[in-house]
Structure formats: structure tokens, C-alpha cells
Amino acid sequence: MKKPKENKDDSGLPAEQKEVSVSRRRLIKSSVAGAVGLATSAGAINRREKKMKPVLDMGRTDVDTSKFDPTTYLTSFDYGTTSTLPNGQTQREYSITATDQEIEVAPGVYFNAWTYNGTVPGPTIRCTEGDRLKVNFFNAGSHPHTIHFHGIHAADMDGVFEPVQPGESFIYEFDAAPMGFHLYHCHTRPLKRHLHKGLYGAFIIDPAEGRPEAKELVMLMNGFDTNFDGENEIYAVNSVAFHYEKHPIDIQQKELVRVYCGNLTEFDLLNSFHLHGNMFKLYRTGTNLNHYELTDTVMLCQGERAVIEFTYEHLGKFMFHAHQSEFAELGWMGVFNVKESTLA
Ligand SMILES: [Cu+2]
After folding, report:
1. Structural domain of residue 271, as residue ranges?
2. Distance 36 CA to ligand 1 centre (A)
């Protein structure tokens, strides 16, 4: 009897298997980059990747921003509900609920996230040094979670040894200190998983005297392992690949811009922020108003953050992106659009 002809190529795998075995990482790289018109070497994308591209694009060129808009997130600050305590101290009260929530990290690419208040990153908690913070945490998710705040506080307010079970709540109370750019995130084991799933946010403690007036933007660098292989297929600031390239951030000529930049990327030890056509003042952790380094690139380890300040002299479009080229090509890429000043 004649043996049926096997459909094999030089990989030794049947075509169907080969199709599945194509790295999602490479696939999304070509798909996402193509969607935004990045220069991608045609020779680097094999025939199968091209063929499968529509599966991931799903005919869409942008994510649905009705649930989470990275542009809105940049300048959204949660100052809490304020009241004055008998001792004259300002109290700020916040409500944070952990939920399981699907998020869209690139057009048609979804990630089953765990969130604070339904978004990744969670709300930016902002206060002034010395304020009393009261954070009402409710766990509506399917796993135990906590909120671990960076900064100075009592041991039982550290969100580490008191896992909050699904359906339960916990109140974190402490005085905000020290001033600077901090983070909050879940600290339940396995920590890598709880962080990577999206349970983190920015925590800004303003100095009592304030910082100079500026256009302020929060940028948390993150990544998403969409196929559970222990590496990220998507990189971004504020979760959506290439969002700020598709939707450039308008700034004004000579306007002071302050970026609160933090690294919440899992699986990769380092991430970075690189600015084109300019230099910036780098205030590491934002805990000192006077000492800075003038540079155009900062590398941040996991959990590190920096306050970055700059003004543009020249008009036009300037890129900002990870200087790890692979991260930039997988989504961590944005554009500042410098326009003529309407400032007095
Ligand atoms: Cu958790």
C-alpha cells in the first residue's frame, strides 16, 4: 500500500504543528509593528507569520479605550476623600477593590489580569507628605491579595503577612512619608505572578512645599506574558502596546514636563526610558528636589522609579521608548508632539 505523503518541511514537523509552534513572541512582534507602520524587515517575517497576522489583528487598528484609556491615565490622580482630623492633620481616604478583569494590551490581544479598581495599572494614589492615609481594600477577586505600599509605615500596615481572602477586606492606615515617587502592589505569593497579573499602581507623595508647576504624566513600564511561557510578548508604558505612538502626547514648547516613571516589568530585570532630541533631569525616586543627573536615558530595575523633568526647545515629534530595542519593537514606544506654546 502506498504510504500517504507527509507534509513536512525542514523542521521535521507536520505543517499544522509547525504553525502552532511559531513563537507568539515573534508573531505579535510582526503583527503589532505592522499595525502601526513600524519599519519591519520583510525578510525577517516568515510566510507563516504573515499568514497568521490577521488572526491577531482581527481587523482592528486600536484597542477599545472605553474601559481603560492610557492617555487619560497619564494625568489621572486620585487624591482620595479628604477630611481634617482633630489634630489638624489632613486625612485622605481611598477605596480599592481587587477584581479579575480581562484587559486588551494590543489590538485583539487580551490578557486575563488581576486589577485594582478594574484597570492596569490601578489608580494613581496621590497625597502630600504628612497626610494620614486610610485605604479601604476589598478583595473581589478569586485569589488572596494585599496592598503593599512603598514608604515608611508600621509592620502590620505593610501588606505582606495579612493576606486578604476573596470576599474579605482590610484597612491600611499610615502617615504618608517620605515625599517621592513610590509604588503600591500586591505582595501575595507567588509574588511574581501576582505582580505580573497587574496588581500595581503609582503612589505619589508630594513634598509639603510642592514641586515647580509642570505638565505631569505617570508612566509605568510593564509587560505581558500572553502565552505563559515566562517571557513577555507585549511591552508598554501603561499597558497598551504602541498607544502613545498612535496617540502622541501633546506638550508645549518650553513647557516643563514631569514624568513619574516606574518599572513594573516582570521577567526582565531591567527596563529603561530614553528621550529623543533632549536631555532630562533625573531625580531618582524623587526623594530629593535639588540633586539630579542630566541625562537622556535611565535604566530602572524592577520596582525602581524616577522623576524625570524636561522642556523642549524644538517643535515637532520626538520619540521616547525603552532603549532595550526589543522592548521598543514589542510595544514600549511613544511620541511627544511639541507644539507652539499657548502659555503666556
Ligand atoms: Cu495578589
Report:
1. 40-57+213-339
2. 34
- Ligand 1 centre distance from Cα of residue 144 (Å): 6
Task: Dump pLDDT digits (tens) for 253-274.
Answer: 999 999 999 999 999 999 999 9
Helix or strand (DSSP H, E) at 300? strand 297-301
Distance 153 CA to ligand 1 centre (A): 20
Q: Which residues contact 85 (CB under 8 A, 6 or more apart)?
A: 91, 132
| CA 256 / ligand 1 centre spacing (Å) | 37
Q: What predicted TM-score, i.e. pTM, was given to this entire model?
A: 0.85
Residue ending a domain, choose from 186, 206, 226? 206
At 23, list the grid cell.
Answer: 513563537
Task: Say if residue 151 is in the same domain as residue 198.
Answer: yes
Q: Which of 276, 288, 206 is nearest to 244 (CA)?
A: 276
Rounded to the nearest whole angstrom, what is the distance from the C-alpha of residue 214 to the centroid of ligand 1?
A: 34
The answer as to whether 245 is a domain residue is: yes
Q: pLDDT by residue (tens digit) across 78-101?
A: 999 999 999 999 999 999 999 999
Chain centroid to Cα 189, Å, comes to: 21
The count of structural domains within the chain is 2
Separation of 112 CA from ligand 1 center, angstroms?
14
In contact, 114 and 101? CB cutoff 8 Å = yes
Tell me whether residue 16 is in a domain. Answer: no
Q: Which of 206, 236, 260 is the last residue of a domain?
A: 206
